[in-house]
From TrEMBL, chains A, B:
Domain annotation HTH dtxR-type: ranges: 3-65
Keyword terms: Activator, Cytoplasm, DNA-binding, Manganese, Repressor, Transcription, Transcription regulation
Top-level division of the source organism's lineage: Bacteria
Primary role: In the presence of manganese, represses expression of mntH and mntS. Up-regulates expression of mntP.
Name recorded for this polypeptide: Transcriptional regulator MntR
Assembly, per entry: Homodimer.
GO MF annotation terms: DNA binding; DNA-binding transcription factor activity; protein dimerization activity; transition metal ion binding
SUPFAM superfamilies documented for this protein: Iron-dependent repressor protein, dimerization domain, Winged helix' DNA-binding domain
Keyword match Chloroplast: no
Main location: cytoplasm
Family stated for the protein in its record: Belongs to the DtxR/MntR family.
Taxonomic lineage from the root: Bacteria, Pseudomonadati, Bacteroidota, Flavobacteriia, Flavobacteriales
Length: 219, 219
DNA sequence: ATCAATATTTAGGTTGTGCTAAATAATTTT
DNA sequence: AAAATTATTTAGCACAACCTAAATATTGAT
């Protein structure tokens, strides 16, 4: 089914909200996520229900149908593949790619995505460490943990972030932390959860908040 | 100025019609090119005139302003760079890229295009041999001739096509002719303009019609 | 120069996607 | 459980981009 960019964006948003909350998605939450008014969300939700991409019960919110979930995963797949392209091939910084990928993901062509995937070497994860759904909708899960969960002397490789605001990504950059960076916990402060860590060959101090937004794959 | 995909497509069409005819562009011609109704073309033309991208005189047609021409060239630039990407990097065949490039060209990001251009090695021509406008709107001109203009024993390199229908491009493919293919005229039939040519190491017979739609750069 | 044919515009409708304001349902507080 | 608060929907409007049908301007033929 060919969907409009707007319809695709709503599907994506609903999928992510479902993942985050495990319950049905309310109109309000959806409107907030889409930065629009609840009335607009209602309009769209009705149209997507009409297309059987989601179940909608008035005043009760929505859940994606199997079809809807499949569609959402395909859009996320495109988004993440384009992000890999932008970072790996065009050497964008990982905090600059979201906006552009958001446009590229709406280009309609199965063939394009298949070839792009091959060109990129069939990556499993995007530059933020998020898994890239396969063509049939399966997702590889990482054994990723929050850095905050590591104990003293444990180490890991940075595989992604929880919050991906430009500010946070730029802050990480200043600390020389990016996807693939090896990190070891040298010390952990009980009092405020802050850590002293080893990044490459340098020591660095990070707050609890930072440690709670950085995913690592333990070694 | 940020334009909608539709506005961009109209600008592109007007630019091409201007190039082809050297006169102002009529509403009818524009509507035909856009595969829409004249009334729709009128609507759009008014909006573009409002934005000072073209001069519009009722019942008299339009001409692009300097601003409009600049915009059109930027869109053409994007289109052709994406076509290079699709053919060179993703190994699409040159008859499959137009439709996808038409979508990609509407992605808004200066930075993206700058980086794409660098990634592609700053090409001067697209896979159909059409020149790629530079960032400032200048166009490299080829010394290209129609194959039909060559005399016996003259040779050249295929640099593009006049008609770029999938049928014609596929036909050329069957004859092993693509951008960069060396061609030499072995014989030319006065009667019907047909030719016997050397393509690589093999002889090939082509009609006048084919020879009139194939551009070569003479050696 | 007038008339017929053609080109173009205007008027008014449709669809998709947004909005605000008002109405209604659901939830929370008391 | 009723009232107050919050969430959601409905009604009605707006804009971009299309459409058809009718009106008007231009062009070409006589």
């Amino acid at each position: 089914m060919k969907l409009s960019p707007s319809e695709e964006n709503y599907l994506k948003a609903i999928y992510h909200l479902e993942q985050a909350s495990d319950t049905g998605v309310t109109t309000n939450a959806l409107a907030q996520r889409m930065e629009t008014k609840p009335s607009s969300a209602t309009d769209m939700v009705k149209r997507l229900a009409e297309k059987e991409l989601l179940h909608y019960v008035r005043y009760r919110g929505v859940t994606l149908t199997n079809e809807g979930t499949k569609s959402a995963l395909q859009i996320i797949r495109k988004h993440r593949l384009w992000q890999v392209f932008l970072v790996e091939k065009l050497h964008f910084h990982w905090d600059q790619v979201a906006e552009i990928a958001e446009q590229l993901e709406h280009v309609h062509s199965e063939e394009l995505i298949a070839r792009l995937e091959r060109f990129l070497g069939e990556p499993d994860f995007d530059p933020h460490g998020e898994p890239i759904p396969s063509k049939d909708g399966t997702i590889k899960q990482t054994a990723k943990k929050l850095l905050a969960e590591l104990k003293k002397n444990q180490g890991g490789v940075c595989v992604g972030v929880k919050e991906s605001s430009p500010e946070f990504l730029q802050y990480l950059d200043k600390k020389n932390i990016t996807i693939g960076t090896k990190i070891k916990v040298l010390g952990k402060e009980f009092f405020d959860g802050s850590m002293v860590i080893l990044v490459g060959k340098d020591q660095s101090f990070i707050s609890k908040k930072t440690a709670e937004n950085l995913y690592v794959q333990t070694l």
